[in-house]
């Protein structure tokens, strides 16, 4: 007779253990991180500079390009920089709940190794020598837990480092902390029963975004200057925009993904990617170039063997940028439209040809991609949640149970949706060709960082996942309740548009970052970064 399976522990016990483990990794810091005020304001962005010492603030306020220069010339040590970022990341955790673990022991051990190498060889070990990098929790670390946000996965231990970590470590990176993820990994919000809710640093009533919201919040508070996120529907770009930082969703199969934790059955029907978030555009560029220069396709055969290219923008004609003012389904809130106008005018002032870009069946794109997200009808995710007894988070319920497109597909039905995907990609390519644009300027979402549990409109980011087009997010301005007034634009575009209008609150959103994205065609990652670098000085 087979032994009876042990019943799972109460989910509350597992969550308590997860949070105690996280807290223990912070408490072991030496010297201890400063305490944060017991009563916090809505906007906590100024607090790290108030509670940390001057030297820590100075180091963690430098952009990654300056830090790397100082590290490469021996003006600061890897231990100094790592110690500073460990302190600031701990403070960020106390402010917005963005960490699953601090990594002081392995980070400082690695930093000491790098300093010893520099002392011996009088040169950096690689292009990222001594730079602390944060990572999303589902990226596998040998010997550490990899839960992907599920209570049931608490005992999942990674057997080796993810490929991306191996590449970055060889380049000299120091991994100093791991950041929060949501239940199911399929939220534009970061909340789970394991670690709770991650708040937006600019307003605790709003979300930092998801699913890389821990990264977004941490970087916005200076607890990291470069982090690794992932994106299958907006999960890098959404937190970047919500938190006022930079992020890029690369074209699939350029950045290694081997060794990460991922739940979604049939995930290859929608290519999910890893990519960087940073407080500067340089951070995105150095990440992408370093990883691709390492030729990761030599050991991860699924990757495209495409070297990093230095792109020259056209000199015999002006750049031509399209502007997507809305997607035909939902008009963005006033600050998004204002940001589009501001950037469009700056582009024209720089001699760029700016044209209106008409959306092409974006609602159909959502029907296709949301049918391909859970090809098993969500069975694996449902089992992962229900097996532990943990409650369903509101946005997990929305994306799986309330989504009419989530169905268990037969082989024939799967083939149908894959054919629809390829047909739509071809149609959109022809639509883009007619416009003749070099890149597209568009919203990242239908508004700025939304109130918790209301981020239910993915079309402005998932559109480009379906097409596998790269998109780079950059900050433009902040919401101004005096300037951002809703203009009467007639009849609502749809029921979703009516719902989005109801979410607008000038008082609540005042002072929150506004970001936009440049989108390019497949494998034009270098091009959209070059365009943004060329134009960024005026934003």
Automatic annotation (TrEMBL):
Substrate binds at residues 185, 211, 232-235. SUPFAM superfamilies: Amidase signature (AS) enzymes. GO terms for molecular function: amidase activity. Its EC number is 3.5.1.4. It comes from Lentithecium fluviatile CBS 122367. Belongs to the amidase family. Residues 80-529 form the Amidase domain. This is amidase. It is an enzyme of class 3 (hydrolase). The active site is at 136 (charge relay system), 211 (charge relay system), 235 (acyl-ester intermediate). Keywords: Hydrolase. The lineage of its organism: Eukaryota, Fungi, Dikarya, Ascomycota, Pezizomycotina. It comes from the Eukaryota. It catalyses: a monocarboxylic acid amide + H2O = a monocarboxylate + NH4(+). The keyword Hydrolase applies. Transmembrane segments: none annotated. The keyword Transmembrane does not apply. Pfam families: Amidase.
